[in-house]
Design a protein that fits this description.
Purple Acid Phosphatase, chain A, domain 2; globular; 407 residues; single chain; 21% strand; 17 strands
């Protein structure tokens, strides 16, 4: 009898210590600030990994997690390029990496996550299955567009109140705009200015998700004594307003280098307006969704969202402030080539209990230089590329300081 009781007690103690710290639910919340008032998020997006996962991506993820010591990992979408048959195993491999580190994670789906012949709800179910207790993503309202839109409150260290909120949005896949049909019925789009064609455009955060955000922000405000709770947003596809930050709207006599989004046409000048960049680099043209449903307007109106973190555009790492909200692009976990290697990696986001935040890119070449790193040995980057990247980064930083003066 005593032996049975002893075994039972041992099992209880083992389970208690094995449970992750974030697993406690209830009024104290699942995610908390540390004793110094900090909460660290590691944003890893656009893995586009094969199955099995290439050694360099696996090594980078392991070392990035060890370096950042995150309280939460956000997977930014476009995770795997595996076939339909291999896809469950690919998700299991990704989730296993994070489970080995014993860190909670959330996921925001990207356009390529829709392309495996598997319904997005079933893709979400795979992450919940293989992530187990570590996957803290929820589909807060299954009636909403997409899957996995949710709110993750971060509580004060003592668990007494929500000090920050993390929103995760599914920004969808691609939409096919039938311009031929639109010309017959101009009400299909705000302005019918296009030639006959069926053109694929990226999607956006939809009106029902924006309405859900407004209601959630209002509820948090009421619980917080009438003050909006500071928040950050994670989604895959960047907001449409990013084009207005880098390029001017086209004039009537412009004829070349035009890109059109809904009701606005932008003039693609050879050198975009780089003076708006607070940090990081613009190394490729952003690809926002075609339709603008007013996401940024809603968040500007509330004043609660400090930053919107996106992926999708693999070699961009900029932070640009638009209407009081930082629009932040995190580069891809999949290695870039050549000049774009300066910002291959992920992003560390540190929330502060006072409502502020800070972030920085955790670059692959930065980790590869650390003692004991296995990134070079994994075949993702060579010693020569390390030297080349350091020189190029110094030149890029000096150039950006110049272009920031050009309005």
């Amino acid at each position: 009898m005593k032996k049975a009781v002893s075994l039972m007690l041992a099992a209880i103690i083992f389970v208690t210590f094995m449970l992750p710290a974030f697993a406690a639910e209830g009024e104290t919340g699942a995610l908390r600030f540390d004793q110094d008032g900090n909460f660290t998020i590691l944003h890893l997006t656009d893995w586009h990994t094969d199955y099995p996962m290439p050694a360099v991506q696996k090594q980078f993820a392991v070392e990035a997690i060890a370096e950042a010591k995150p309280d939460l990992i956000v997977l930014g979408g476009d995770m795997s390029g595996a076939s339909k048959e291999e896809y469950p195993a690919a998700v299991e491999e990704i989730c296993g990496l994070i489970a080995d580190a014993q860190v909670p994670f959330a996921i925001t789906f990207g356009n390529h996550d829709y392309e495996h012949g598997i319904a997005i709800d079933d893709v979400f179910a795979l992450y919940k299955k293989y992530g187990g207790a570590y996957c803290v993503s929820e589909d807060d309202d299954p009636a909403l567009f997409g899957c996995g839109t949710c709110s993750l409150p971060v509580y004060t260290n003592d668990g007494s109140r929500v000090a920050y909120n993390v929103y995760c949005f599914d920004s969808g896949s691609e939409v096919i705009t039938d311009y031929a049909a639109m010309k017959k019925d101009p009400s299909l789009l705000p302005e019918a200015r296009f030639a006959d064609a069926r053109v694929s455009q990226y999607d956006s955060v939809h009106p029902d998700q924006i309405a859900w955000y407004r209601a959630k922000a209002a509820a948090l405000k009421e619980e917080n004594g009438g003050e909006y709770v500071p928040s950050v947003v994670f989604q895959h596809i960047i907001v449409q307003e990013i084009f207005g930050a880098f390029w001017r709207e086209a004039k009537a006599n412009d004829s070349k280098g035009l890109v059109e989004f809904e009701e606005k046409t932008y003039k693609m000048t050879a050198i975009p307006r780089l003076s708006c960049i607070k940090y990081g680099y613009l190394l490729e043209r952003p690809c926002p969704g075609y339709y603008n449903y007013g996401q940024l307007d809603a968040m500007k109106e509330n004043g609660d969202v400090r930053a919107i973190f996106c992926g999708h555009d693999h070699s961009n790492s900029f932070t640009v402030e638009i209407d009081g909200v930082d629009i932040v692009n995190t580069p891809s976990v999949k290695p870039h080539s050549g000049f774009k290697k300066i910002d291959w990696g992920g992003r560390i986001v540190t929330l502060h209990e006072d409502g502020s935040y800070e972030s920085r890119v955790l670059a692959g070449f930065e980790l590869a230089q650390k003692k004991g790193s296995g990134i070079i040995g994994s075949g993702g980057i060579s010693s020569f590329e390390i030297v080349f990247t350091k020189i190029w980064k110094a030149f890029a930083d000096a150039s950006l300081r110049f272009w920031k003066r050009v309005k």
